[in-house]
Specification:
This protein is of the alpha/beta class. The protein has helices at residues 30-35, 37-43, 78-90, 109-112, 165-181, 225-237, 254-258, 272-276, 281-293, 310-313, 317-333, 362-366, 410-414, 420-433, and strands at residues 10-14, 47-50, 54-55, 67-71, 94-99, 121-122, 140-142, 148-150, 185-188, 244-247, 268-269, 299-301, 337-341, 439-441, 448-453, 456-461, 467-470, 475-478, 483-485, 488-491, 495-500. Helix content is 26%, strand content 17%. The structure holds 1-deoxynojirimycin.
Amino acid sequence: MTHEWWRDAVIYQVYVRSFADGDGDGVGDLPGVRSRLPYLATLGVDAVWLTPFYASPMADGGYDVADYRAVDPLFGSLSDAEGLIADAHALGLRVIVDIVPNHTSDRHEWFQAGLRDRYHFRTGEAIPNDWQSIFGGPAWSRTADGDWYLHLFAPEQPDLNWDNADVRAEFLDILRFWLDLGVDGFRVDVAHGMVKAAGLPDVGRLDQNAMLGTDPLPYFDQDGVHEIYRSWRQVLDSYPDDRMAVAEAWTPSTERTARYLRPDELHQAFNFHFLKADWAAAPLRTVIDDTLAAGAPATWVLSNHDVVRHVTRYGGGEVGRRRARAAAMLMLALPGSAYVYQGEELGLPEVLNLPDEVLADPVWERSGRTDRGRDGCRVPLPWTSTGPSLGFGPSRPWLPQPEAWAKLAVSEQETSPESMLSLYRAALRARRRLAFGEFAWEGAEPDVLAFRRGAFHCVVNLGESVVRMADPGPVLLASSYYGLEQGEVLLPPDTVLWWEA
Ligand code: NOJ
């Protein structure tokens, strides 16, 4: 059997509006991404996932799509997309694009034309049920004629009705459109959302956001969704070269997530259970065990454009950075594929002090300005230590960068062997070279995770004190300094070692 490329690929997430600005309007775009592809090739990733760049009124950063076959002028043109795909392929990078099937923009021609069967419309005075929007407030709004429509996200993102045959046919066609253009795969937005429980039953409580990803909900992870993916898989399989799809599916368990990965469904799903695990040995060990036991292709992810950056989640400052270095080496040593979110290779922290007036995430207004939303992980990348946007583009960026980011710029880190960027490059280089064998835990004390994959070994000290271990011989890579004393290695807290024996 051939080994499909995605099984152990490292896939780099480009949040297009914050990666690189080619035309100087302060917003990242496809020409910007294209100009920085050599950086990604040098970093050593295998593929790039681009967040939505389709025609959109940008009520949710482009996750409100008005035309699935057009590039928004803010991000460039269709020929920019084609050029980007061609350049990426020439550099040996695959390209994955986002597809947003749970909802359209309210400016989509179907919603504009009042094609109600393709959405969830209800008439009557009373709100149809107690469902809550993920962005805050009820999941129902009224049109100008007083009818209700469902939107699990912003009111500008009406949910599609996947019982409608036209909706199903349209998305098969959209998949073909991008596959014909040469993309290698899709990241499926809200992949667990398209099918709703029959009759749209009440949840019975309003704090539904607290149930996300832990409890069953009538609008997420319904069994009927799997039939859709069986039809998508047929389309993907009708193209050469292992085209793939990765699900954004927040489910209550690794077992529920694995259902999206049955052989005739999708290829991967983000492992949010890993992302959500605390930085401690027991929860990480449980997630790793559950993931590998599920028998489905494994992925590992630490950050994305929807969550607080992990340097900050792990404690911020020096501690957060040190743990992030260790986490990267842990993630890249595990069997399966890994997702890297732009800027994590620079060790960027969450920006916690963005001024109110620049906040663009709909969560901020929808929550009645109680939740500042996700802009703090979407601040444009620093490429150089000077300039109006630290090299992001020729003008001021759409979100301000902290001054301290000058020191975190690519240009600064490239020349420093101890930087986070150098660590990612070294780890990715080693990962390419290593012939990983079968995964097996190795005996270790409770705060330590130690495993081997054939001749390759990885040890992670998640405790608070230095751990002594027998000197394994030449170390391939270390996340931080470690000591050597009388034939023993002294492994400090939050440190990872890789070696071959
Ligand atoms: C998940 C996306 O990652 C997020 O950014 C977006 O707001 C929602 N889906 C709605 O499309």
